[in-house]
Amino acid sequence: MKHFTFKHVARLLAELLVLLAIYQLGCQLAVGFAWPIPGGVVGLGLLLAAFASGLVKPAALQLGAGVLMAEMLLFFIPALMSLLDYGGLMRNDGWRILLVIGLSTLSVMLVTAFTVEMVCRWRVRHEA
């Protein structure tokens, strides 16, 4: 079993609080400006802006983000369990729902891949 020091736990909690604060700020902005974008997406944009500007280094939030990523399945269990309440919907329109999920996942993966490729090429041009 891994032994955690007080310093390790304090850093983890601090990073999680920073991530939560960014998420909350994104939610407040989305509601305050009546944007049709979820607050979590706005928060991710804020985090990306903080990384891009150099205000926050990605390594500064690595521990907290790693814990959240490792426990991601726990965040999806309630959503999966709610499907039991909608058996009829899944029988009638399940294929459409799966098609939308598949296409949207593919779209996100493609946009992410092209964005990363574009940023890498831009970085190589500007660092050379």
Automatic annotation (TrEMBL):
Query: Where primarily located?
Result: membrane
Q: Which keywords label this protein?
A: Cell membrane, Membrane, Transmembrane, Transmembrane helix
Q: What is this protein called?
A: CidA/LrgA family protein
User: Where are the membrane-spanning stretches?
Assistant: 12-31, 37-56, 63-83, 95-116
Q: Does the keyword Transmembrane apply?
A: yes
One GO term describing the cellular component: plasma membrane
Does the record carry ATP-binding as a key word?
Answer: no
Q: How does it sit in the membrane?
A: Multi-pass membrane protein
Where does it localize?
Answer: Cell membrane
Q: Which organism is it from?
A: Pseudomonas haemolytica
